[in-house]
Write a structure and sequence with these properties.
heterodimer, A: mainly alpha, MetI-like fold, two-stranded parallel sheet, 26 helices, 1% strand, B: alpha+beta, Rossmann fold, OB fold (Dihydrolipoamide Acetyltransferase, E2P), six-stranded mixed sheet, five-stranded antiparallel sheet, 20 strands
Chain lengths: 591, 359
């Protein structure tokens, strides 16, 4: 009998489990658990605590009571939820048919449209909202053009305030234009993965047309659609940029922001609103994961469908498809054109729509004025650092989740996924509550720019973990075992086998993280550290754009130029990921 | 070269006991096979020898050195994985040289040894290719070269041929066997394919649900299966359940449940009243016209239920009292006059019977 081993066999199962992890993994577990605890769990916990702190001291439900009895907060909540659902419905009404047409039909010009359909994702929503207001708002280019058109046609229509009013519908319009590709990409990813024989066998058994679609195709494509729908819903619910840009105050996230940021605001109500919005998000996430599973939503691929199930569209159908897609794309590039017009043309007289000429004046100003050029440099610095940070933390957590067994594993999984359902404003709020206490003398963590890097990294962590998870799963464990069998130590195996194999996927994920941090809005507006990496200006791009957009007409143009810089960075980033992932744009947008 | 000793190895995954008290002794230079259906614990046993799984109980010795707590990278075993596990980001040369680099062998020697190893497996000109430019058989050879080049103390092969097509499988197993003999390396081979196991092994262990059922040379296991599991796992076999009616010095008479009397050559451990399985291989059963008799042979009458033409042989299935008995006849010798549905008589010799005691 085994004497040594039988002694080892005793002891509690937790101890045994702990002993079975190697030292490297143990260090990784402790390090990542500490980071997640301090920078995700604690901030959220602090907000929850703050929500129960009554204005006159003591703990109670007073703040919640105030929330439920104040009509404007309830209207804000109602508006948030309604616009999230409307955006979802509208984005689905566009995205699902486009996905079906793009995966199932061949028609002339399809390749071009495949490229064009991801255009909306290239304009950061904040910038898009600014441009749409500039085009369709009061004194906007399109508004003025239409006014001129009606006048010359002798019609008596007054477009005084423009089309973009501070209303739910403007919010839904702006969000839908930006978000419908998320539904399209996710649904088509699912649709193109459907094994053609599944549909063929249904046809063989007598199903066809709508019945086939409803009974077989739709249920099979549902996971992808649900993943996209979740992204859109959460995105819309937590959107701060759009309501700020169109100045629509009765919107929950905006209310929380305002109450917190203004002097003498009702700070506790901001925490209550945060909790309510987070709860709705978490509920949506739970519902979807219950029916779909966690893996589906992190990585969206814009790959082509297998050839076998694609049908050639007839003449009539082709014309219809091309016409609808063209209208859709024209509507979708309003933000792009608007941004370009605002950035590079001279402002016409009030009420006029024809630009007076092309100019680099605003761009030169954007790049030479210290406040804005510093903001560009700041955002570059923050985004680079945050993506580096996420590569390592994401890879470490994914490695533990994929390869190791240890107590608390599912907890690590859940906490690292939490930021997915937590609106950026909530993270920002939590950081302020937790880290704005003076540490030494008057020094606070929230005073220094690094807090933005941490907040960006934590917000994007779920995506980093998921993309590392996906690449790691493709690396079979036997590849590591083979190295170990031939004499490589744990570290050596990691360095010479695992990391080289997962590097392209990790870098692609990091580039996406970079894009998203470079265009991040919520925490950028919430946390306003004083000390930057290049002096006493820590503003990231989003904050600078926000400030400029609230300035005079020329400042708005400078804001658009900063938007152009974000767009250029986004396009370069997408191009790099596309190359790294071999033609498949791994898009993991959201938030 | 080392000998390998496993003592009472136990390994559980959660509540599933994968390996349940396995003890084995594998000699120096022996080609030893672990054979069993999937889930029998053979791969887990191999992985414990390689060090990828830590036994819950029991010991592993290489030459009397306790290996339990030696990490996998210090065991000097060469393993060939079922999926080959070639590194896609390295050339064939780099894949093979990896183990030598880990051992800090000087560059010039690495070059020579990799070249020799690749020549040994017949892939001399393939050093600069990447794994995805190779066929399945070639990948298999690279995996073999990679395991052999480090001159391992033990060669571990985990279902190495299961991803190859049937023809290549037969070819490769011959090559592996001859390489093993040439290098005289202690080898442990895991497979679920009984033909493969019989063909390559010096000795083999049949495993079932975590336990070793029988250990022996291939011929021994084939002709004298210890129990019903081994008998039916290794090749096709006819089994008759019965009781020993007479146990004399030279012969044993068994009365089967169907009321047949079968006479077998005497085996020493058989007593009257013992419950046994009478086992006869189909190739030892002859088919005759109905009414055939022979004083020295066992004869059973029945009806031909099926005739399968299998090339060199034809397999007859004869039904007698609800029991199907299989008989393989060399095709030219088969009595062509016998047709499906005909009555027929089968016979088998006393010497071809093995008795399996039912405990």
């Amino acid at each position: 009998m085994g004497k040594v081993a039988s002694i080892k066999g005793r002891g509690s199962s937790v101890l045994k489990a702990l002993r079975s992890i190697d030292r490297l993994s143990l260090i990784l577990v402790i390090a990542s658990a500490t980071l997640l605890f301090v920078f995700i769990f604690l901030p959220i916990f602090t907000i929850v605590y703050n929500a129960f702190e009554e204005p006159d001291g003591g703990i109670g439900l007073k703040n919640f009571e105030n929330f439920w009895t104040t009509p404007s907060y309830l209207r804000g909540l109602r508006n948030s939820v309604i616009s999230a659902f409307l955006t979802l419905a509208l984005a689905s009404a566009i995205g699902v048919p486009v996905a079906f047409v793009m995966t199932r039909y061949n028609f002339p010009g399809k390749r071009i449209f495949t490229l064009l359909t991801i255009l909306p994702l290239m304009v950061p929503p904040f910038v898009g909202a600014l441009a749409i207001t500039g085009m369709l708002g009061r004194n906007g280019t399109i508004t003025n053009f239409l006014q001129w058109l009606f006048q010359s046609l002798g019609l008596d229509v007054a477009l005084e305030g423009g089309f973009i009013q501070p209303s739910i519908f403007s919010i839904v319009f702006i969000q839908t234009l930006h978000l419908w590709p998320l539904i399209y990409l996710n649904t088509s990813a699912s649709l193109s993965k459907i094994d053609p024989t599944l549909e063929e066998s249904a046809k063989n058994l007598g199903a066809s047309g709508l019945k086939l679609f409803r009974r077989v195709t739709l249920p099979l494509a549902f996971p992808g659609f649900a993943a996209g729908a979740l992204l859109v819903f959460l995105w819309s619910l937590s959107d701060l940029g759009t309501p700020i840009m169109i100045n629509f105050p009765e919107y929950s996230v905006f209310q929380a922001f305002t109450e917190f940021i203004i002097e003498g605001g009702y700070k506790e109500i901001a925490s209550v609103i945060s909790i309510v919005i987070t709860a709705i998000s978490a509920l949506a996430l739970l519902l979807v994961t219950r029916y779909v599973g966690l893996k589906e939503y992190a990585v969206v691929r814009a790959g082509a469908a297998p050839r076998a199930i694609q049908r050639k569209a007839g003449k009539k159908l082709s014309v219809m498809i091309l016409l609808s897609l063209t209208i859709l794309i024209i509507a979708s590039v309003i933000p792009h054109i608007g941004t370009l017009i605002m950035a590079f043309t001279t402002r016409p007289a009030y009420g006029d729509w024809i630009p007076r000429g092309v100019t680099m004046e605003y761009m030169i100003r954007a790049l030479s004025e210290e406040s804005s050029s510093t903001a560009v440099a700041n955002s570059l610095t923050y985004s680079l650092l945050a993506s580096f940070f996420d590569i390592f933390l994401g890879a470490a957590i994914a490695y533990l989740l994929v390869r190791k067994k240890f107590p608390g594993k599912s907890l690590l999984d859940i906490v690292s996924m939490m930021p997915f359902a937590i609106p950026g404003i909530v993270i920002g709020l939590g950081y302020i509550h937790l880290f704005s206490r003076p540490i030494i003398g008057n020094f606070r963590l929230t005073s220094i720019w690094f807090i933005l890097v941490i907040s960006y990294a934590m917000r994007r962590l779920p995506y980093a973990v998921r993309s590392a998870h996906a690449v790691l799963q493709q690396v079979h464990e036997s590849l590591e075992e083979a190295a170990s069998n031939l004499g490589a130590t744990k570290i050596k195996t990691l360095m010479s086998i695992t990391i080289p194999l997962i590097m392209p996927g990790l870098v692609a994920g990091a580039v996406l993280t970079f894009i998203n941090c470079f265009t991040e809005v919520s925490t950028s507006l919430m946390l306003q550290p004083i000390i930057g990496p290049f002096g006493f200006n820590a503003s990231p791009l989003a904050l600078q754009i926000f400030r400029e957009s609230k300035g005079g007409p020329t400042a708005v143009r400078v804001a658009s130029c900063l938007g152009v810089i974000q767009i250029i960075a986004t396009i370069i980033g997408l191009y790099i990921t596309n190359k790294l992932l071999g033609g498949k744009a791994g898009l993991a947008f959201g938030g | 070269m080392v000998d390998v000793k496993l003592e009472n190895l136990v390994k559980a995954f959660g509540s599933v006991i994968a390996v349940d008290g396995v003890s084995l002794q594998i000699s120096k230079s022996e080609f030893f096979t672990l054979l069993g259906p999937s889930g029998c614990g053979k791969t887990t046993t191999l992985r414990m020898i390689a060090g990828f799984n830590q036994p819950d109980n029991g010991e592993i010795y290489f030459n009397d050195r306790l290996m339990n707590y030696v990490p996998p990278d210090k065991r000097n075993t060469g393993m060939v994985f079922q999926n080959y596990a070639l590194w896609p980001h390295m050339s064939v040369f780099k894949n093979v040289s990896f183990g030598l680099e880990m051992r800090k062998i000087p560059g010039q020697e690495i070059k020579e040894r990799v070249k020799a190893a690749l020549n040994l497996v017949g892939l001399g000109g393939f050093a600069d290719r990447t794994p995805d430019q190779l066929s399945g058989g070639q990948q298999q050879r690279v995996a073999l070269a990679r395991a052999l080049v480090i001159e391992p103390d033990v060669l571990l092969l985990d279902e190495p041929l299961s991803n190859l097509d049937a023809k290549l499988r037969v070819e490769m197993r011959k090559e592996i066997k001859s390489l093993q003999k040439k290098l005289a390396i202690t080898t442990i081979y895991v497979t679920h394919d009984q033909k493969e196991a019989l063909a390559v092994s010096d000795r083999l262990a049949v495993m079932g649900i975590g336990k070793i059922v029988q250990v022996g040379a291939p011929s021994e296991i084939y002709s004298n299966p210890k129990n019903r599991f081994v008998a039916s796992f290794i090749g096709l076999i006819n089994l008759f359940h019965g009781k020993v009616a007479v146990a004399k010095e030279k012969e044993v008479v068994i009365k089967t449940r169907m009321g047949l009397e079968i006479v077998a050559s005497a085996l020493d451990e058989v007593n009257t009243g013992m419950e046994v399985l009478v086992a006869v291989r189909p190739e030892n059963v002859e088919v005759h016209r109905y009414g055939f008799t022979h004083p020295q042979k066992n004869v059973i009458n029945g009806v031909i239920e099926a005739i399968e033409y299998l090339g060199s042989i034809s397999r007859y299935s004869i039904k007698s009292d609800q029991k199907i008995i299989n008989a393989d006849q060399y095709s030219p010798e088969a009595e062509e006059t016998l047709q499906l549905g005909d009555k027929a008589t089968i016979s088998f010799e006393r010497e071809h019977i093995s008795l399996i005691e039912i405990l």
